[in-house]
C-alpha cells in the first residue's frame, strides 16, 4: 500500500512538501542488527532504524532520516541487503532509483545512473528473488515498468520490451515464491499475470490474463506455499473483504477460491514466512486509529480462522505491513499519524503483542517499509 492507493481510497491529495532531516556523522557506528527502512513520501526521505533482535524495538541509526531524490511511494531491499530500490510516482511523473547500503553503518548512497524513468504513478515496487530485476506498477500509465539491477554498483537498466501493459490503474505487484511469475492487481478490475524471462527479465502475459473482474483492488500477496493469491477489495469504502484466488500449478492462472469477509477499508496484508499466519490492516477513517486483524492459515486446504485477541490497534491509516524474515516481528507504516507500529508475533498462536515503545515516531507520511 502507498500514497497513490491511499488517495484512491479516500480521494484526497497528500501535500508533498520537502522537509529537512538529519545529517550523517563523520564516522557512524557499525550496525550489526537488521535495519528497517521507511519511505517517508512527504518528507522526501528514508528513515532507518536498527531492530533490536530480542525485542523488536526500533532505534534510529546515525544520520537518519536520509534525504533522497523525491517522495518515494515504495521501497524494497534486494536480496543480499546491498541495494535499496525506491519508486517515485505521481500523475505527471514516475521513476525508480537504486541506493547502495553501506554494510558498516546502513547509510544510503545513490547508485550509478539513478534515477531512471518509469511510468506515471510508479508504485508498489517489487524485486525478484535473485535480485536481478525490479518492477513497478504504474497507476496512471496502466502498465508495469521493469529494470535490471547491478548488485555491486546499484546501476539500473530498463528491461527491453517494457513497459508491459496491465489493466486499468494497477495498484499492487507481487512476485510468486518461485520468482518466475508476476501479478498486478488492477484497481479498475482484474489481476494481470506474467511470466518472467529468466535471461532478460521481460514480462510475458499468462494465458487468460487478466484474471477475474473484481474492482477496487489495493493490496496483494501470495502465500509462501505459492498456492493462493490474496487481494484486498474495497468497494467504494462501503465495506471490504479479502478475495482469495487459487494458483494453477501448471498454468499459474488464477481462479477465485474464497472470500473472507473483513472490516471496511482493508489497506494491506502480509504473511509470516512460514505461511501459518497472515494479517490484514484496516483503516476505518484517515484521522482515526486503524486496526490489524490476524488469521491462521492452512496451505494444504486453504482454510483460515481468526486469531484470538484481535483486532489490534495501529496508528492512523495503516498503509503497509512488513514482517521480518524470522517471522518474529510485524511493522506497520501509519500514513496520517506519521509513525510505525510494532508487534511481536507469537510463533505458536500468531497472537500479537505491542513492542515496548510502539508506535515509533517517523517522518512525514510513511508509506512503505523494507527490512535488511
Helix content percent band: under 10%
Task: Determine the CATH superfamily.
Answer: YVTN repeat-like/Quinoprotein amine dehydrogenase
Through-space gap between termini: 19 Å
- What is the count of DSSP helices, taking H or I runs of 4+ residues? 1
CATH topology: Methylamine Dehydrogenase, Chain H
Number of strands: 33
Mean pLDDT: 89
Q: Give the CA-based shape.
A: globular
Structure description:
The strands form 7 sheets. Strands 1, 2, 3, 4 and 33 form a 5-stranded antiparallel β-sheet that branches. Strands 5, 6, 7, 8 and 9 form a 5-stranded antiparallel β-sheet that branches. Strands 10, 11, 12, 13 and 14 form a 5-stranded antiparallel β-sheet that branches. This protein has a single domain (3-19, 35-371), classed as YVTN repeat-like/Quinoprotein amine dehydrogenase (Methylamine Dehydrogenase, Chain H). It is globular and about 50 Å long. It is mainly beta. 56% of the residues are buried. It contains 1 helix and 33 strands. It has one helix at 3-10; strands at 35-40, 45-51, 58-60, 66-67, 72-77, 83-89, 94-101, 108-110, 116-117, 122-127, 133-138, 143-149, 156-158, 164-165, 170-175, 181-186, 191-196, 203-205, 217-222, 228-233, 241-247, 254-261, 266-271, 277-282, 289-298, 303-306, 312-316, 318-323, 329-334, 339-345, 352-354, 360-361, 366-371. Residues 1-31 have low confidence and may be disordered.
Question: What is this structure's SSE topology?
Answer:
Layout: H1 3-10, E1 35-40, E2 45-51, E3 58-60, E4 66-67, E5 72-77, E6 83-89, E7 94-101, E8 108-110, E9 116-117, E10 122-127, E11 133-138, E12 143-149, E13 156-158, E14 164-165, E15 170-175, E16 181-186, E17 191-196, E18 203-205, E19 217-222, E20 228-233, E21 241-247, E22 254-261, E23 266-271, E24 277-282, E25 289-298, E26 303-306, E27 312-316, E28 318-323, E29 329-334, E30 339-345, E31 352-354, E32 360-361, E33 366-371
Antiparallel strand pairs: 1-2, 1-33, 2-3, 2-4, 5-6, 6-7, 7-8, 7-9, 10-11, 11-12, 12-13, 12-14, 15-16, 16-17, 17-18, 19-20, 20-21, 21-22, 23-24, 24-25, 25-26, 25-27, 28-29, 29-30, 30-31, 30-32
